[in-house]
Amino acid sequence: MSIQLHIIAGPDAGRKYALPDNGTLVIGRGSDSDTKIRDPRLSRVHCEVQQRDGHFFLVDRGGAGGVHINGCAVENEKAMSLGTIFEIGDSHLRLESDGGLDAATMVPGKMKLPGIEQLAGKPKPTVDSSLRDLVGQTFQDRFQVDEIVSQSATSVVYRGTDLKHDRPVAIKVLRPQMATSDPQRERFTRAMQTVMPIKHPNIVRLRMAGRRGNYCWAATDWVDGCSVAALIDSIGISGMLDWKQVWRVGVDISRALEEAGQHHVVHRNVTPSNLLRRDSDKAFLLSDLIFARALETTDAAQLTRPGDVIGDLGYMAPERIFDVENVDERSDQFGLGATLYALLTGRSPYAANSLPQLIANLKGEKPTAPYTFQIGSDERFSHLVMRMIEIKPADRYPNSTAVLKELERVGRLAGMEI
Prior knowledge:
The structure is a single chain. It contains 13 helices and 19 strands. The strands form five sheets. A six-stranded antiparallel sheet has the order 11-12-13-14-16-15, with helices on one face. It is an alpha+beta fold. The N and C termini lie far apart (50 Å). It has helices at 103-106, 116-121, 129-132, 182-193, 228-235, 243-262, 291-295, 300-303, 319-322, 329-345, 355-362, 379-388, 400-413, and strands spanning 3-9, 16-18, 24-27, 47-52, 55-60, 68-69, 72-73, 77-80, 85-88, 91-97, 138-139, 143-151, 155-162, 167-174, 206-212, 215-221, 225-227, 275-278, 284-286. It folds into three domains: 2-97, Tumour Suppressor Smad4; 129-221, Phosphorylase Kinase, domain 1, CATH 3.30.200.20; 225-414, Orthogonal Bundle (Transferase(Phosphotransferase), domain 1). It comes from Rubripirellula tenax. Its EC number is 2.7.11.1. Residues 143-410 form the Protein kinase domain. Pfam families: Pkinase, Yop-YscD_cpl.
């Protein structure tokens, strides 16, 4: 079996490079590299993939913009497995065998997280020149756009600087095709501004939202850390986290949702990719508050493919499909419960790749209780999670406050620090 690096997105998408006999593949755009990738954002020598004693490592060689796995920067080097996808410049590369085997195939019992690995592995849209040109500009004479850090089908995220307070911020800019008229842009901006008064230690704070020509933007606090999706990939054991760590995710995010509920705000897209763990204190934060709802006021719904919806299918409450007029904070409870379930088991409870498949899964058998997947996990916590993901909203907890109280009760019984 030979090992290769496959460019799955970017200017040279489709090209493959075999790992040489010496076990080191030098990656970059210059003649000193083994790849000569035609990506203008790469350095001449950007990074390396090394094979040592049967293990694979991604080594940062100081390339401009760095090297990222699941949105987390690689510092010096990071262990890889077959199937790992990393990002450099505008390119996404996957380590694989020539037979296409991934980590789940190579390691018996290895479980991958549907929804999370699809998010990490899905080629992201490239950033067009007009969005690149925003780098170096300043919004509202306060928020300086410094560099692009990520992009999705709906938006581009930049690292920036709040010049008023000299602190880093994240600036999310909606792609122009998502809101093509002034009324849509105004509705999106107003929707985002409704959460500006919300201040909570477990919510990524929105500092300002506005318009600049055809662009809608929002500036939030910058969080040094990783998403829960990246956390699963980096420290999970067989795709799972210890139940006590998952319990902490539940407590922190339930506190955030309780605060949002007091402001009558429903997130609508609580998923592992929208939950962040801050490096400094290991606290979990809820990000992109109301962004999904704001998108629904624009052309985003019309621009998705037939059968698609805004949000990650594996974590979407059934009422968002069958009874959209009655979406409330219990829908966010379902999203959090599905995320906790995924962290405990390695799979979302109703994993699906399409809306018809999700509907079929929701009408099928009830998911297996999480405690059966982990030896030593708390059965009370498992039952709590199962109630959060009940199909009917009336069968779930009435609100986030009730969820939080039950989480705290379970934690006290297990000797956890509340």
